[in-house]
Every structure is written in structure tokens, then in C-alpha cells.
Design goal:
Helices cover about 90% and strands about 0% of the residues. The protein has 3 helices and no strands. By secondary structure, it is mostly helical.
């Protein structure tokens, strides 16, 4: 389940990279069709890049939330919860060992 979500997230990031290349091509086309200056073309490209970065962050957040929700639905514990239980077991084992002396 987690692997599927991870693959989906990586595909989304790959799509964003592909989108960046397409954005560069689009800007080039727009510059030639509408006689945009180098500066205006760069501004538009920078804006598209920032939008892509923002979308990537949103995608990562959504994927992370989905992983957490999936783990909760499956009844899986978090790393922190596991570590707390492990420490408690170690503490109890130590108490049992000392009580048996």
C-alpha cells in the first residue's frame, strides 16, 4: 500500500518535471507568437515554475496525509508509538529481571 502511494507520488513529481520542460517550450512558443520580450518571457516562466513548485508541495502533503490515513485504517502504529511501546517493554523486562534476583 505504501509502495503504491510512494510510486504515485514519484510519478507526480516526474510529471511536474515534464511539465517544466513543456512550460519552457510553451514560453518559447508564446514569445515567438506574441513577440514577448526576453524579460516578459522569463517572468512568465518564473511564475509557472513557482506554481509547479507549489503544486509539488501540495502533492507531497496530500500523499503524506493519505499514507497516514491508510496506516490508521489498517491499524498500523506510528514509529513514535512503536518506540514508546518498545521502551516500556524494555523497562518492564528490566523490572522483571531485577525482581527475579
Amino acid at each position: 500500500m505504501i509502495e503504491l502511494i510512494e510510486k504515485t507520488m514519484l510519478a507526480g513529481i516526474g510529471a511536474i518535471s515534464l511539465t517544466q520542460k513543456k512550460a519552457e517550450d510553451l514560453i518559447s512558443d508564446l514569445r515567438s507568437q506574441f513577440n514577448l520580450s526576453e524579460e516578459k518571457g522569463r517572468e512568465l516562466f518564473d511564475k509557472l515554475q513557482q506554481t509547479a513548485r507549489d503544486n509539488q508541495k501540495k502533492l507531497q502533503e496530500v500523499a503524506q496525509n493519505e499514507v497516514v490515513a491508510a496506516c490508521e485504517r489498517l491499524g498500523l502504529v506510528t514509529r513514535d508509538e512503536f518506540d514508546k511501546v518498545r521502551k516500556k517493554v524494555q523497562h518492564l523486562e528490566k523490572q522483571l529481571k531485577e525482581a527475579g534476583k
